[in-house]
Design goal:
22% strand; 6-stranded mixed sheet; Rossmann fold; 10 strands; 8 helices
Length: 266
């Protein structure tokens, strides 16, 4: 069984449905608490690819941190497959804008790290890591160190390192924002290809409307703080999507709608 089939099997047996109920999260020191978002209700079906859009500073990253279990809900609750989220867990993998790879470890050992923590033997974990590196287009780079890779390649390693834990939910916080335009496009296509194979639930935060419409099945739009959901838009464009899809009249019209929503006052 390939790494993609193995992950897909794990995802199908552990769904990946996300439910937010009347979720409020406050951040900051005790004497200066700020409500990041207030009373959010959101249902995400298992295997969906959902993009989250909103003005800068509205709480998009805070929302991901709460779903990951790094921030506690002030009110309401977060559930994954009916189980309340109250702490971090490998079932909810988080990919940041900047990679978090260990610079002193080779690529294969960076990817295999999660299995090492779980006590999987060296041969088995490296075999699975190599399969995942092949899935993200990096076979042949197993012995490289992160500093020997381009930014896009580092992010591929980061994605593989998260996927090796077979997450039910993949949380992505503007993972391609630091890349040049051409590399960013390549990474978007790669991500869609990987998602089509493993079908884990993806919640992808971005400030880029084109990126959200290109990647997502749904786009959830947040208002300014305290953030609320102001739109939940189904994206009707067929897959696979291409660069030409962004020139379609329906794509342009949906982009105008998103722009108008972003410009609305709180």
């Amino acid at each position: 069984m390939s790494a993609a089939q193995s992950i897909g099997s794990a995802v199908s047996s552990h769904a990946g449905r996300v439910d937010l109920r009347a979720l409020t999260v406050e951040v900051g020191p005790p004497d200066a608490r700020v409500t990041a978002f207030d009373g959010i209700d959101l249902d995400i079906e298992a295997g969906q690819f959902v993009c989250v859009l909103g003005p800068s500073g509205c709480g998009k990253s805070t929302l991901l941190a709460a779903i990951a279990g790094h921030l506690a809900a002030s009110q309401g609750r977060i559930e994954v497959d009916g189980v309340r989220v109250d702490r971090p867990h490998p079932d909810r993998g988080l990919v940041f804008q900047q990679h978090t790879l260990f610079p002193w470890k080779r690529v294969v050992d960076n990817v295999a790290f999660g299995l090492k923590v779980r006590g999987v033997g060296a041969a088995a974990r490296r075999r699975e890591a190599r399969e995942l590196l092949e899935l993200v287009g990096l076979d042949g780079y197993e012995s490289h160190y992160p500093a020997q890779l381009s930014g896009g390649m580092q992010q591929r390693v980061e994605i593989a390192r998260v996927l090796i834990n077979r997450p039910r939910v993949l949380l992505m916080d503007e993972p391609f924002a630091a890349l040049d335009a051409q590399t960013r496009k390549k990474m978007q296509r790669l991500l869609l290809d990987v998602w089509s194979r493993v079908r884990t639930t993806v919640i992808f935060v971005t400030h880029d409307i084109d990126e959200a419409l290109f990647l997502g099945e749904r786009v959830v739009m947040l208002s300014r703080q305290p953030a609320r959901i102001i739109a939940d838009i189904d994206i009707p464009f067929a897959r696979p999507r291409t660069d030409e899809s962004t020139l379609d009249a329906a794509f342009v019209e949906l982009k105008r709608r998103c722009l108008a929503l972003l410009r609305e006052p709180a």
